[in-house]
């Protein structure tokens, strides 16, 4: 082989492989060579597939986020850096309130009442008129005081407990309607026309013309009672 060719082959052989190219997903660098050697020797880093490229640089086949999580799981506190070598500071994702569903549109005006509601309203109005305008007899004179307080106009009748019980019992026997003043549990006073059916245990069960149904009323909430006057024939 000619000597010039031998020189050429030897020169190419000396230069070949001085530059090496390989694949790496991430790198780990540190000025402390001992710390890098410790990480490289740790069995827990096997999944990261680390390889020393220089005394202060390790290459990893794992992606950067996996490399960060792996080192943190090993008890280290690594920091990610940008391509320019600046430390990256990640912020926690902002917790936002989910968008609210807009309320369903409300139709203009109240809903149209059905026939059942209209019928109940008419019955209540008529029963209220009956309770307010029905002629009634004045309450009986009480034996204790010798006086009686008459119900005048819209004022509720006032009688003693004994007179109330006696009048309601008599109406239950005869089936006659009576006019009562009543105060409910909320303290609201009203006047009603009822037809007593049964009186027992401190309660009177009666057909309430105002409510158009059978109801039970505590006697202690009835402020007074008056018999309805006979309509002129």
TrEMBL record:
<protein>
    <recommendedName>
        <fullName>WYL domain-containing protein</fullName>
    </recommendedName>
</protein>
<dbReference type="InterPro" id="IPR026881">
    <property type="entry name" value="WYL_dom"/>
</dbReference>
<dbReference type="Pfam" id="PF13625">
    <property type="entry name" value="Helicase_C_3"/>
</dbReference>
<dbReference type="InterPro" id="IPR032830">
    <property type="entry name" value="XPB/Ssl2_N"/>
</dbReference>
<feature type="domain" description="WYL">
    <location>
        <begin position="164"/>
        <end position="225"/>
    </location>
</feature>
<feature type="domain" description="Helicase XPB/Ssl2 N-terminal">
    <location>
        <begin position="1"/>
        <end position="54"/>
    </location>
</feature>
<dbReference type="Pfam" id="PF13280">
    <property type="entry name" value="WYL"/>
</dbReference>
